């Protein structure tokens, strides 16, 4: 979060949280379960959607997604190729989604036949934690190529999410990443956190994530 | 940048820019050349410092560094192992360094015998661009593992920096990254940009970067 005056900060968060609750009610009214996808740039958030959609479809579930990015529609284009409905939410200059942008997306999405909505945030390990969006759970996706200090550097992210995905396990050796250190750091910040290791290029670990999401 | 009122935004940037100019004068007074290192989480900013320090030392140059991170001293510990002086600047909750944090760091660093200062920012492709720090040039480090859409998604970063380093070229194939697309996107946003491809794990491309920095 940037330097802003304390009162202003409280106002921004207050307004955002009210709208996040409204979004949560919106999901509930449509019998939809919503999940945030947070994480660093390129950690594998869109890959996760690409792999989860067919897995959930095979279990009879219809998915939709909101693609959050500063600029462009790269993720949106990849997501709609999976055959689901999606909305492209560009933040322009902001480094995170907020409840207002998600609310706007919901205005454009017909959720009547949808079971699950994924909200992919902007790649950023800091600011998105401050802005609730209305999802029932927050999933943080990190990857080995970010270095094994990525958890230690971002305590708030791991305290704020319920599920952690450690992606790109196939590249751990190539970057010299000690996955065990990451796991220990996660447990230190959030002992309750569910941790799943994945190779989302190959789809390894996706069934386990689907199990957790549908639990 | 987060939603703040327009006047407040102008005030924040105005105050920051004045302090950035003061930092620039501080560097000048000590005959020091300063370079910002920006980029996504884990792109290779600290690796670049680790590899550049001995290369610059072999050319008779003394380096120092400011290690910017939200939390912890992982980067600081790696940097001082190269034998240079450094300062650990934790931002706490902020997603970027600002000129004030850098000014504070300079208060703690004896620059008398130093030729070059690297200012490693928090891993973030959005917010650091809004905050000048007083360096003469900004270097953005991206890596193939972030995906080849990372440039397209972050226009401001590439308009704001003068040198782009495309790191982890050894992993391009493993993630399916088209490096040529990255280069084309960079040229579209900033035709003047200097682009250097590296494998900073092995030190490939480091001599070229040293040439550019000392030019
Ligand atoms: N080798 C390997 N590559 C992966 C894996 N997961 C994702 N990738 C690749 O990593 C790059 C980034 O993946 P994305 O899914 O676009 O990551 P993201 O988190 O959506 O990225 P942003 O939305 O830009 O922040 C792409 O080139 C993927 O193909 C993995 O487990 N192993
Ligand atoms: N294979 C390979 N690994 C690399 C390369 N460059 C860096 N790495 C590894 O990538 C991980 C992250 O590198 P860092 O230098 O810590 O990246 P950073 O930009 O300083 O990261 P933050 O400060 O956390 O944002 C580390 O495990 C490095 O060893 C490269 O060119 N090839
Ligand atoms: Mg994505
Ligand atoms: Mg670093
Ligand atoms: Zn921010
Ligand atoms: Zn001063």
TrEMBL record, chains A, B:
Keywords: GTP-binding, Hydrolase, Metal-binding, Nickel, Nucleotide-binding, Zinc. The keyword Methyltransferase does not apply. InterPro entries: CobW/HypB/UreG_nucleotide-bd (IPR003495), Hyd_mat_HypB (IPR004392), P-loop_NTPase (IPR027417). Gene3D superfamilies: P-loop containing nucleotide triphosphate hydrolases (3.40.50.300). Residues 37-195 form the CobW/HypB/UreG nucleotide-binding domain. This is Hydrogenase nickel incorporation protein HypB. It comes from the Archaea. PANTHER family: HYDROGENASE MATURATION FACTOR HYPB (PTHR30134:SF2), HYDROGENASE PROTEIN ASSEMBLY PROTEIN, NICKEL CHAPERONE (PTHR30134). Belongs to the SIMIBI class G3E GTPase family. HypB/HupM subfamily.
